[in-house]
Amino acid sequence: MSARVALVTGGTGGIGTAICRRLADLGHKVATNYRNEDKAGDWQRRMQADGYDITMVKGDVGSPEEAEALVRGVEEKLGPVDILVNNAGITRDTTFHKMMPQQWSEVINTNLNSVYNMTRPVIEGMRARKWGRVIQISSINGQKGQYGQANYAAAKAGMHGFTISLAQENARFGITVNTVSPGYIGTDMVMAVPEDVRAKIVAQIPTGRLGMPEEIAYAVAFFIPDEASWITGANLSVNGGQYMGW
Ligand code: NDP
């Protein structure tokens, strides 16, 4: 596979770290964003100790200006972005009748507006170079809904609506646009859920266990090679069989 420049948002998180590692293992030049210097420094040192040289550029994906600066920073350091993985995400769970405007808007901004903010600065270059990969990390809860997550499910379902439109607009330019929808993965986001709730979640997963970040990274990598160039507008569920719809 040709070496490409990959930008993975939220690379310092559980799933993002696995995606960064996987893409680097495949020979790509990988970059991610950070927000907090200390946290970023620790993460980068851990990655370097494992032999990974991941480029880090500061930026909040919820800000159009910072997202654009992040892309330009990566371009300066590594060259034009060929692969964008929109992975950064947050939750602010509560039932809708108690949901405050901020809980709604923070989740929509970080999980969905970020997809505009990050993709807009890379798409014209991909079109000009006639090659690109844009991959959204959505969620099983965007497919089936989830009690206490009207904000998150709306944002995650919106990501796939974005995917299938962008896929149509850019198919003739060698750009594929796809979604990966993880089920419950044993990262900090899920381990923060109370243990009794987690046990109930695991009981609903036919494989009988939480997923591993590496299993999401594998799905992301699947969309990248030239052999995958006819796969666009797809949503790949990686959820241990918990939800088998679209
Ligand atoms: P983590 O909380 O471990 O990581 C989230 C990452 O996103 C961190 O690097 C965080 O950076 C970054 N981030 C958050 N907000 C912003 C922002 N405004 N600007 C830039 N970066 C930001 O989450 P996971 O690894 O578990 O999840 C990754 C993705 O997978 C998310 O989109 C999530 O919704 C999705 N997902 C996760 C599932 C799971 O079971 N874990 C299931 C289904 C989907 P910082 O350290 O600065 O906060």
Structural overview:
By secondary structure, this protein is an alpha/beta fold. The chain has helices spanning 14-25, 37-49, 64-78, 101-129, 140-144, 150-170, 188-191, 195-203, 213-222, and strands spanning 5-8, 29-34, 55-58, 83-86, 132-137, 175-182, 235-238. The protein has nine helices and seven strands. Helix 1 (14-25) packs across helix 9, helix 3 (64-78) runs parallel beside helix 4 and helix 4 runs parallel beside helix 6. The protein has one domain (5-184, 213-235): Rossmann fold, CATH 3.40.50.720. The structure holds NADPH dihydro-nicotinamide-adenine-dinucleotide phosphate. It is an enzyme of class 1 (oxidoreductase). This is Acetoacetyl-CoA reductase.
Sequence-ordered SSE layout with sheet pairings:
Layout: E1 5-8, H1 14-25, E2 29-34, H2 37-49, E3 55-58, H3 64-78, E4 83-86, H4 101-129, E5 132-137, H5 140-144, H6 150-170, E6 175-182, H7 188-191, H8 195-203, H9 213-222, E7 235-238
Parallel strand pairs: 1-2, 1-4, 2-3, 4-5, 5-6, 6-7
